[in-house]
Amino acid sequence: MIIFPAIDLKDGKCVRLSQGKFESVTTYSEDPLKIAKRFKEEGAQWLHVVDLDGARMGSPQAVNLQVVRQIVRQVGLPVQFGGGVRNGEVVERMLNVGVTRVVVGTAVAQNDQLAQGLFTVYGDKVAVGVDAKEGLVAIHGWQQTTGEPAGRFVGKMALLGAKRFIFTDVARDGMLQGVNEPALADIARCAGALPVIASGGVSGPNDISTLVVLARQCPNIEGVIIGKALYAGAITLKSALDLALGG
For the chain, which domains are there? Predict the structure, then answer.
């Protein structure tokens, strides 16, 4: 199982939100590049970077893009990037910046034709962000829902050519309340054989162990994104990586 330490960017700083609420922001570092380098030193194989301002505004923001460029150039780890990616031009721009994989959510949730085109052109370089609020797909930085059940959305995207999914239970994100295991298992089933990355709710070592066990039942669960648990000291990256070796 792959561990993706998360770096969420707001105004060029490393922060965490609770349930995606911008009024519930905690700043953990003024220097995200330093955080990224530390994660590499601790054994990370990937980084998950999110432009929170971009997610809210609808396009990646310059102050955060500058940080992403620094991370790509100076850290030397593959970067999975999301936040404000609403069209193919932005996907292309982020790939040119040097990120390895771009996460699209709102754009494909609202436009099947765009989704199919992105999957055809970019293949595995694009992952579908499946953000669920009370089981329904959330869009526009989690500020709205489409009314479509997350599982049905995953099935539709798979038919259109999606290669990978990142599933986030919005209610659990940043709350250290544990992973929503039943919801994740359902998404994994709806995805068929396509890989699914879990996100939101990791509270400590027990959640990683739970995911490792679940991944044996649902082999397409390939990894987990960990954010607040790392910053709050509820788990170390090293211990998460060690536990993940079991899956």
Answer: 2-244 (3.20.20.70)
**Dist. CA 99–CA 79, nearest whole Å:** 5
Residue 124 annotated in active site: no
Q: What is the DSSP letter of 85?
A: -
Which one of the listed residues 8, 169, 173, 186 is annotated catalytic?
Answer: 8
Mean pLDDT confidence for 47-54 = 96
Report the largest interatomic distance among the alpha carbons of the chain, rounded to a whole angstrom.
Answer: 43
CA 217 to chain centre: 22
Would you call 207 a catalytic residue per the annotation?
A: no
The one catalytic residue in 51, 53, 131, 207 is 131
155 is written with which tokens? 């099935």
Q: Quick: pLDDT tens for 67-122.
A: 999 999 999 999 999 999 999 999 999 999 999 999 998 889 999 999 999 999 99
Beta bridge partners of 126: 102
Under 8 Å CB-to-CB from 116, ≥6 apart: which residues? Answer: 160, 161
* pTM, entire model: 0.93
d(CA 103, CA 129) in angstroms, rounded, equals: 6
pLDDT in tens, 159-182: 999 999 999 988 665 556 678 899
The span from the CA of 75 to the CA of 92, in Å, is: 21
